[in-house]
Specification:
Helices cover 15% and strands 33% of the residues. Strands 1, 2, 3, 4, 6, 7, 8, 12, 13, 14 and 15 form an 11-stranded mixed β-sheet that branches. By secondary structure, the protein is α+β, with helices and mostly antiparallel strands.
Length: 282
């Protein structure tokens, strides 16, 4: 299997579970999984992948605060792909809980990432699974899986971010404090309620060139053109496995500028917060 085919197989299993407007999930309580850093949803996804792929595949959970969340390896052919998982909970009004952007913590999203195989550092492809759960966290109402390059294709930028954090010691008048310099990145949120082609859908977005390699790509319903700030255009296909429309690559609807609202953000003036008391009466 190619890396995209592995992800496509996982996607196919997920959407096959769909019923009554969502994909049912069964999340164990945090306390039964291990440390408080463990995410029950990540564990549920990992278990589903383990049951879906053939026995020659291994599914490895990276552990807390490590990217990607899950690493999948074909032990026979050596193919490895990463899967980072991002989950949001619907608000009571049905919208997502973040809007334009979502936190990627201190590691930028990327279509490539680094792992260790023994002592060797290996660069592997990485996909991102975005899931919007209903307010009671019993089903996935929006599922978007994307090639990481769809969000950021600059691997050097991603690599720099992994080493950009540091801690400063000897801080303060007594030299006893420390300051943790940890950058926090926000990039587009594919679960944004206002993205009408994504919201309440169950889709897979991959590079056009990679889909073209698959013998049976399935229900390709749209193409997305991502144009960078240098004028380069990158083509992606959007697959909707639940669509009943026949695939006609010659007449695909084309989406552009889907995250343009992110570019319109402006920096806000920051002020120091402090308590406010009413003046004493004279």
């Amino acid at each position: 299997m190619t890396e995209l085919k592995i992800i496509d197989t996982i996607y196919g299993k997920l959407i096959s579970l769909n019923k009554n407007g969502g994909i049912p999930v069964n999340l164990k309580a945090r306390s039964t999984i291990g440390t408080v850093q463990d995410d029950p949803f990540d564990k549920w996804i990992g278990g589903l992948i383990d049951k879906t792929l053939p026995k020659n595949f291994e599914v490895v959970h990276s552990g807390s605060l490590t990217t990607p969340d899950i690493v999948i390896r074909d032990k026979e052919k050596g193919t490895i792909v990463g899967l980072e998982i991002k989950k949001l909970i619907q608000k009571p009004n049905g919208s997502d809980s973040r809007g334009l952007t979502i936190d990627y913590n201190s590691s930028l999203p990327s279509g490539s990432t680094m792992i260790k195989v023994g002592e060797e550092t290996v660069i592997i492809p990485c996909y991102y699974l975005f899931a919007l759960l209903n307010n009671s966290s019993t089903k996935i109402v929006t599922l978007v899986i994307v090639d990481g390059d769809f969000l950021n294709y600059d691997f050097d930028l991603h690599k720099e971010s992994k080493y950009a954090n540091y801690t400063e010691y000897g801080h303060g008048p007594y030299g006893e404090g420390s300051v943790r310099h940890r950058k926090m990145y926000t990039y587009p949120n594919p679960l944004n309620t206002k993205l009408k082609d994504f919201f309440l859908s169950q889709i897979l977005v991959g590079k056009k060139a990679e889909f073209d390699k698959l013998p049976d790509a399935g229900k390709i319903t749209e193409q997305i053109i991502r144009t960078d700030k240098f004028g380069n255009s990158f083509y992606y296909y959007l697959k909707d496995g639940r669509s009943n429309a026949p695939t006609d690559l010659g007449t695909l609807k084309t989406l552009t500028d889907i995250f343009d609202a992110c570019k319109k953000r402006k920096p806000k003036k920051r002020t120091a917060s402090m308590p406010v008391l009413k003046p004493l009466k004279k």
